[in-house]
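I need you to check the entry underneath: sequence plus fold tokens. Let me know what the token row says about the fold.

>
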Amino acid sequence: MSVHQVLIAGQWRDADQASTFRADNPATKQALPDEFPVSTWSDCDAALAAATDAAALLRKLPGERIAAFLEDYASRIEQRAGELVDMAHAETALPVAPRLADVELPRTTNQLRLGAAAARNGSWAQAALDTKAGIRSCFGPIGPVCVFGPNNFPFAFGSISGGDFAAAIAAGNPVIAKANSSHPGTTRIFAVAAHEASLATDMPAATVQLLYRTSHADGERLVADPRTGATGYTGSRNAGLKLKQAADAVGTPIYLELSSTNPVVILPGALEERFDAIADDFSGSCLMGAGQFCTNPGIVVLLAGDTTEKFIAAVAQRFENAAVGTLLSKSVEASLQGNLAALQAAGAEVVVGGGAGTGAGYCRANTLLRTCGDTFLANAEALQTEAFGNASLFVVAADIEQATQLLQHLEGNLTGCVYSHNGGQDDAMYDLVADPLRQRVGRLLNDKMPTGVAVSSAMNHGGPFPSTGHPGFTAVGMPASLVRFAMLQSYDNVRPARLPRLLHDKNPTGDTWRLINGQWTTADVDC
């Protein structure tokens, strides 16, 4: 079988390849037949050159044209749903239904359509018009955006289909997508649909480009190239920090989602009130999808006592009885094994699991570990090692004061949750733990596990470092996610005809929100 082509400058062409690779089927540990290229810098350079030309053209297009592309693309994805689901299942072992077909694919097309709506309306750009000073400003496209997709969401976070992609395009930028090596075939099918949509809506040739893999050095060079406007990355902390170092060295924005243990605090009254329900909630959340969610509850804080010991035993029994899921790749299996060993070396004890899994393909046993508050405080950094997969660590604090203290030692996380008594029995304790937790997470939850990430305009899928590279931005939720891939552009005494349409006296859509002389309004400028 021939090596698949890359998409550069609107053309499918043979890569300038250094080598080739194949993805594995995680359920069988066997290599899949399709072969993909590892591109040299020559391909990266060509993609950047083409993206630079496309960016200049995209800046002149109205939001309606960009919206038409995103909507056409979403429709073409739906037409290829069966092909996409089958390929993603083979490359990730994620269930066809409901996960891929009924949850992730509809979410993906919904994100694209939300991006289209944001592009068409334009309110995301936060236009500000000061007519007395003669100054007007709005957010505008930042330039070519590189998107590095993760292994665990081949659709909804994919480099050529997911939230970063939709936000970058909706903000008016071309995208250079770097496929995740775990699911290159899935990414290629998306690229085919995106290319078709680009042709059908007469978009600039290099609006969407695809590379499958590069060397680490070329990846770092790509994000640091002066032609790159910004980068979106979701993946391992180690690789992400290397990209960040390269981008930071030259001042290029890079938005990272790296690692998160998503702490859950369960207060005593909640356990007394709904013991079994919380045990079920936690076990289901932690083991769903073999624990391979960025919002998987990896640390649970409990207060010492007989009920807590019974709860730990009940969860351990659920872990032991539950099926062992398939991990996404050999590297995920190896990383989970290594990080569980690191947690044990730091003072965590295995309650259940810890060894080889009994599931299909790449897997590890469902694992629950525990440690006490004193040990955690003595070795907080090591005990926050992310065990990405079907595992979690219970930290049993001596009392509420120690629980509050250990929350102050947490790294930044995407989410944090507090379970408390519905009748108010835990309210005083809640007040003690909520504030330190609030400052260390992007999204604070009450009485629900953090696994689900709703595509909502109010969602924050972000948080303090190291969960992301910057606490002020979200990767999910439009229109807020678009601002990452935009630059604030101010116009001082610029003649009206030379202004972007969004800054004209007349509202370009009739319903775009603009800040005119200090008041948010959809009206025209009152002359």
Observations:
- The first helix runs from residue 41 to 58.
- Residues 338 and 387 are 9 Å apart (CA to CA).
